[in-house]
Design goal:
single chain, Rossmann fold, 4-stranded antiparallel sheet, 31% helix, Alpha-Beta Plaits, 6-stranded mixed sheet
């Protein structure tokens, strides 16, 4: 058996471009307003196409946690859906557990346990136990084996004492644990977890991260997408960063951070941030990246700048911030993080 669990070669997915959505076709230009055009022989002109995934190459090793990161609309979810056979690639190829995702789709599905973001993959009008029993029957797991697996998973997910309650009464964290239990029922070697901790409270998210780490120790290969950079850094053996449908970086978390070892990160807290202030700071020769994000508290903003010479940059930053309702509250120079690597590569924060 190959030591590669998931492999993608020049994977491409195109969709018809929608003018009202801002989708851009493959040539990068916005699609024209829709007009009904016909050729001399009465055939419609081909529609402009939007490329969501553009030549993705991946090799994910057996037994590793591979983090796939990218801003919204970068192509992460489309890639995941092709790998789990929900979408057929426009071109290129992919293999999961040695099986082709198009020609051997049933074998791919048997090899995978999948939890997709935003998908209601369990029935809220059934109890947790009934959900697992139902899906065990769908997976053709023998009754005696299924009964033991259901009990084991309920205990492992720490919901045995509420297993007979309707799922609609569960917290978001409990529903997510039932969804993961469902993914584990058939004991697949590979798990695709699409933003598994999204919407969970900090304790539930911590518990789920511990579970993911345990699953890796048991030999599962895990493809993980997340909007939480600390989570990717903590869990992933390797990380691929995808933007505009292309993988633009792939390395270990430590290897990615080494890419900007020569940079310093200046972190500001600012009240009343104005976009024109950002434009002034970006124009400084010492600054080569800036991302501003509004915080939960009132009009407080966090501004991260990357600089090769913070000593020269600091007085100029202070000079440009102030007046017109903008006030500097705090300023620190910090060690570059994985998120700073992401910002440098994509020009965006992960949650943008």
């Amino acid at each position: 058996m190959s030591d590669i669990a998931i492999e993608a070669n020049q994977l491409v997915k195109k969709f018809p471009a929608r003018p009202e959505s801002g989708d851009k076709p493959a040539n990068g230009n916005a699609p024209p307003a829709p007009k009904r055009k016909f050729s001399l022989f009465g055939k419609k002109e081909p529609k402009p196409m939007f490329t969501a995934v553009d030549g993705v190459d991946l090799q994910i090793k057996r037994g590793e946690i591979f983090g796939l990161l990218g801003p919204n609309g970068a192509g992460k979810s489309t890639t995941i859906r092709m790998l789990c056979t929900l979408l057929e690639p426009t071109s290129g190829s992919a293999r999961v557990n040695g099986f082709d995702v198009v020609k051997q789709a049933n074998d791919v599905r048997r090899s995978l346990g999948t939890v997709l973001a935003g998908e209601r993959s369990i029935y809220w009008k059934l109890s947790g136990r009934e959900n697992l029993e139902y899906f065990a029957a769908l997976y053709h797991i023998p009754s005696a084996v299924a009964k033991k697996r259901v009990e084991d998973l309920l205990e492992r997910m720490e919901i045995k004492n509420r297993a007979n309650e309707l799922v609609e009464k569960y917290s978001t964290g409990m529903r997510q644990r039932i969804a993961i239990a469902k993914a584990l029922l058939a004991r697949p070697p590979i798990l695709l977890l699409d933003e598994p901790t999204l919407g969970l409270d900090p304790q539930a998210a911590r518990n789920l991260r511990e579970l993911i780490a345990q699953l890796k120790q048991e030999g599962h290969t895990i493809l993980l997408t997340t909007h939480y950079m600390e989570e990717a850094d903590q869990l992933s053996d390797r990380i691929g960063i995808i933007d505009t449908g292309k993988v633009i970086a792939l390395d270990t978390p430590a290897g990615l951070k080494r890419h900007i070892d020569q940079s310093e990160v200046i972190r500001l807290e600012v009240l009343g941030w104005q976009d024109y202030v950002g434009d002034k700071l970006r124009a400084l020769s010492e600054i080569h990246s800036l991302v501003a994000r509004k915080q939960d508290e009132g009009d407080l903003w966090e501004v991260n700048l990357q600089s090769n010479d913070s000593r020269a940059a600091l007085p100029r930053i202070v000079e440009h911030i102030g007046g017109n309702g903008t006030r500097l509250v705090n300023m620190n120079i910090v060690k570059p993080s994985l998120e700073d690597v992401f910002i440098q590569l994509t020009g965006k924060a992960l949650r943008d």
